[in-house]
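User: I want to check something. If I give you two sequences, will you return the structure for each one separately, not as a complex?

Assistant: Yes, each is folded on its own. Here is the first sequence with its structure:
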Amino acid sequence: MAFHLNNKWSEERLERWLVRAEKHYGGFVKGVQRKKISPKDPRPHELLYKIGMQGGDRMMFHGYAKKYAEYLAPILQSRVLDDCPTMIVEVGILKGTGLAVWADLFPKCRLIGLDIDLNFIEENMGFLEKRGAFKNTKPEIYEFDQYLDNFRYMGKILKRDRIDICIDDGTHCTPANLTTFRSIKPYLSKQFVYIIEDNPNVYLEIRKLYPSLNVENSGELTIITPNRKKLI
């Protein structure tokens, strides 16, 4: 499912590819039962254990492919054509569909997946690899509680690397989103894209707390970049 750049390359083509790639690696799943919850999660735990999780839904089900193509296209052009590595972090990986997509899109990258429960991706890794995932890049996966201050923890994981692309598809709760962003922000590269999914209100808090950053809201999607709407 590698995305090959050529003279017919366009954001529209990337948008279509993102939808196909997500479907190729399993697509939309729902009713995935939680096995682990942060002790600091303020939501009723009994209810959370009853409510199943869903994933593989960003590109087609939620319709985020257009915005992803808009913001990832400039990075894809500059990094891939110049043969530069890309540092990608995804928070909330569930079964790993997103990681498989990013590994195909950026074949030369360091790819990190963070989740409070790694059992789901570990159980699904065989399926992803049979579908052709991770031929060039093997993801690093780490346990991650979004309600904790993970600043030092991220420093140990990243070492001297800086993050170019970060996707928060974890709890979808504003307190956890803000804590995660605060932990990761010091490690973002000079030209980064930070995306928070499935939270229609978090952008308001981020705009207040970080007025120097550009924060775009598109429905339930928040896109944060350094002082400009999209990278050039």
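And separately, the second sequence with its own structure:
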Amino acid sequence: MQPKKRSRPRSGNGLKNFSRFYTMPDHNGQDVSVCKRFFLKTLGFTSDKVITSTLLATPSDVLVPCSDRRGKHEPANKKSAETNKLVVDHIKSHNPAISHYRREHAPNRLYLSPDLTITATHNDFKQRHPTVTVGYETYRKVVDDLNISFAKLGEEECELCIMYTRHDHDNQDIELCSKCTEWREHNDRARLARVNYLADKDTPNDKNCARFTTDMQKIIMLPAMPGVKTAVFTRRLVAFHQTFAPLGSRTKIQPAVGIIWHEAIAGRNAEDVASAFVKCFASEHYRDAKQLVVWCDNCSGQNKNWTLYTTLCYLVNTPGGPDEITLKYLERGHTFMSADSFHASVEKAMKKKRNVYDFSDFAECINKNHGQAIQMQSLDFTDWPNGSSTARFTHKPLLKDVCQVIGITLSNGLKSGN
């Protein structure tokens, strides 16, 4: 662009203030003057609108045009950092937590109590901050950005079985299809585990051998007062309940043991759950049993880890401890057992009681269903180490392949874990 060389007074003050000159490089890279039509056709344009728009947005003293700012401007309704912090703090005040049902598959996903909804929490935010304008959609997006869900978690469905039902063989032979082979192996493991589970369930009672299942109930928020809005939107205490439920006909003569504690004492790490195992085995129901057979699910953070196996080695090496402890695992996605039935009865008792004010009321709901609640104290928790060897020559099995773990007493009187 160059200023125009002369003006024509007969036409008055014209609108043209500059002239455009077009150049294109030749085969030697030298700029050659070309006409406007040649320039546009070479670049594939049918009009000079793109050139006009670019130059109008570029100051006269700038050689390089400005970049396109379309879609890059700050939205007029964008909330400030202070407003976003208020929303985040309000959401986190409801104490979202990781669900042990899906910790393995979604370790970064947080869950809120199922008695909450986004609409209810948004209305609560508007009542607490009446001077701050935050729409429902903005509030919902913040919840999504924090990776928080309001889903009600119950019995987990089998992912492999769902994938198999929707699997397309792509004209492949079923015997050669890798996904079909994987599902058949998974189904065989699930069937075999269930057969062994039913065999232990039908085994006659033996005072020297205790057979039971264990699982952690979904997160309990105390106080649980569904009809009181203030309690729903108040920072509540997270309670944990590790159930040890007997198998089969033993449920009529032996209560389920519920080991309970809350977040002010400990969490639910591997060493915390291992301490709950020790507390249960030392209770009056199992302390005299020489053989303990425990059925678990495949949750690696709680029932399937080297910290728990180290704890078993300690128990079988303790004078007066059990001679044999066996952990058996059901196949992932097919883990329904007696502990889950006991959890359902506890939840039913909590709904019948309606308002569960404190830890004592929660223990009462456990005791009402032919169970015994045992509360953990701070001294009951031990920082159990991970005693597995890190050396390569040990050839440790992968935890995902483990189906059974046994700690036994050897013939020479020594005890060991295998």
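Because they were folded independently, the notes below concern the second chain alone. The chain has three domains: 2-56, 81-149, 183-417. Confidence is low (pLDDT under 50) at residues 411-417.
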